[in-house]
Design goal:
141 residues; alpha+beta; Aldehyde Oxidoreductase, domain 3; four-stranded antiparallel β-sheet; three-stranded antiparallel β-sheet
């Protein structure tokens, strides 16, 4: 699973995911992409599950790019622990995703196959997404 090799700080504030994506809103590598339509927090497990769903469906033909990275630690306190005594330990990693952000890109496969693969991957994610296509690449823009 994805996680940073090292970070400047061990724990992070929760923060809020609001507003539209500032960058990463256009297709840069492939002809097909999966774009977030709502803000949210995507875990490293979700990203890996979506990646596996895509690569299995396209039968390892073509190429997949992952455009998000989980770099924010989420801490949890253990079960049945009293209040106080500081913040819990980092348990998992998330990527903050804003609407308009391209999350995955795909190339080297037909339009129908890419659409099906992204539909399978969307079921693994906690944010709603839509499929986008590079203009002039056999399908709707």
């Amino acid at each position: 699973m994805f996680q940073p090799a090292r970070t400047k700080y061990r724990k992070a504030h929760k923060g809020r995911v609001h507003g539209k994506a500032k960058g990463g809103t256009t297709l840069n590598f492939g002809n097909f992409g999966m774009k977030a339509t709502e803000p949210g927090r995507v875990t490293a497990r979700e990203i890996e599950a979506a990646r596996r769903a895509i690569t299995r469906h396209i039968k390892r033909v073509g190429r997949v790019w992952i455009r998000i990275f989980p770099d924010v630690p989420v801490s949890r306190k253990p079960a049945e622990v009293r209040m106080g005594s500081g913040k819990g330990t980092p348990e998992f990693w998330i990527a903050r995703v804003k609407p308009g952000r391209i999350m995955f890109e795909l190339d080297g496969v037909p339009h129908q196959l890419a659409h099906e693969a992204f539909a399978l991957a969307a079921a693994k994610l906690s944010v709603s997404v839509r499929t986008v296509t590079r203009v002039g690449e056999g399908g709707e823009p």
